[in-house]
Design a protein that fits this description.
This protein is α/β, with parallel strands linked by helices. It has a domain at about 225-340: Succinate dehydrogenase/fumarate reductase flavoprotein, catalytic domain (Flavocytochrome C3, Chain A, domain 1), CATH 3.90.700. The protein is about 30% helix and about 20% strand. It is built from 13 helices and 23 strands. The protein has helices at about 15-20, 60-70, 75-95, 125-140, 205-215, 245-250, 280-295, 310-315, 315-325, 380-395, 430-440, 445-460, 470-490, and strands at about 1-10, 30, 50, 100, 105, 110, 120, 145, 150-160, 160-170, 175-185, 220, 225-230, 240, 250-255, 265, 300-305, 335-345, 345-350, 360-365, 370, 410-415, 515. Strands 1, 2, 8, 9, 10, 11 and 20 form a seven-stranded mixed β-sheet that branches. A six-stranded antiparallel β-sheet has the order 14-13-18-17-15-16. It has a five-stranded mixed β-sheet with strand order 21-19-12-23-22, with helices on one face. It binds succinic acid (SIN). Succinic acid binds near residues 45, 46, 243, 244 and 245.
Length: about 525
Amino acid sequence: MNTHDYIVIGSGVAGLYAALLARDHGNVVLLTKGAIDDTNTKYAQGGIAAAVGRDDSPELHLRDTIAAGAGLVDEVAARVLAEEAPARIADLARFGVPFDTSHGELALGREAAHSRSRIIHAGGDRTGAHIELSLSGLARLSGITVLEHRLVERLLMEDGRVTGVATLATEGAPLREDFVGRHIILATGGAGQLYGITTNPAVATGDGVALAYHAGAELQDMEFIQFHPTALRMPGVPTFLISEAVRGEGAVLRAVEGPVGRMAGRPFMAEYDPRAELAPRDIVARAIATEMRAAGSSHVFLDVTRLAPEYTAARFPQIYRYCLDHGLDITREPIPVAPAAHYIMGGVRTDVWARTTLPGLYACGEVACTGVHGANRLASNSLLETVVFAKQAVEATLGRAEGDPPALTAETLDLSPSQPVRGETPTLPLLQSIMWEKVGIERTGQGLAAARERLASLAAALPERGDRAALELANLVWVARLVTEAALQRTESRGAHYRSDYPRTDPAWARRITFRKGVRNG
Ligand code: SIN
């Protein structure tokens, strides 16, 4: 039996950072289902938000976070986030992350819905890649046991406590092996693969949410999926994030005019929100979707041409190079962009010490839901939450958490699969098209109810056991069901959750939807 003080699941920034802190307090095994750097972290462009500027303060950062979250931000958690941010940035710098500087100080970018320039970045738009490289390099040198190609199939429980994990080797012989640990930290990231158009890589399959759900942990805010307004949309070119920082530097969104896809036209954002390009993400994404529908186009344009070409190439080297490699010189031509699934605000319910409702199990990063983002995450608070709450998790394992861990409060939710009604074989494209069409940027009760039925049917047709692809698909189907269920329940529009049959925000709905697995009655 493999016994460890800490079992960390996931090798993005949340997992790496938690493992690096935990190694001072016990032996640590870090399990990751692919290669160590096969994570969402490395695709992060914009940066990390922290109130370190002379004109800034954690109080202002807190206020912006609360405003973006559309009435659902947990203020206690958001205060921890904003107040701990500068210290965590200092830690990352000590761990070797080469943040960009200007005149001897951290260079600070601007992003939408931030009232100050507070986005710290590395390598221009290569922030995530630099963090991943620095922390994974350090992890390998630090006495942490890193096991790549190990997918966690199940959390092991004893007397209501999570005591370990059952794993499947995803490369070589199909080895199954259990690991036992005192503290289990889930850091498995998000679930962007619910949708065919996403900024997330193939690994973002909601594994941690599904694992925690099946073990009986509470989940919350699952209906809130953030669609990033500007992902590159060119025929035959993989979806690629065009950072919000580009708009922060002054790029303008323009409608498609004339022959579709040929010319960039009127700047439209001011017609939707006085903050124009710097309105919160949900507003910008919906405005773009409206313009696309009106023009019958697959995209709008993001126009960067008013910035000096040398500046664009230096500030956004990755975006500039990617587009150029696909025949588009963004310093001369507008960029075709459209919204893409980007981030899930919901996840495994935790308190500010990353404690879940299951003793022994902690969660941090995108898999977790502290309530810090409410209904709509503020740009560049995601990398920040990973380090802030990974640190809180390790502190909690040392007995430094204040107050009791979160108690079970939720209604149980019976998601027993129905009989497969259509004889459909569950496949990733099928799941993704149901989600995009019926549980996407705009939702209706009718569409959600249809999705609920089809997803239940897909769940019934899932195999009992399988290889990595089969397990990932099963995780996605369960996460999809949870998202759909919560979206059906929330009969209003708020933040990233937009119901065209309930277009208004209803003050009576200023509460979270929380649930955990019901008792199967079939
Ligand atoms: C971006 O660079 O636009 C993404 C940053 C984020 O999701 O916070």
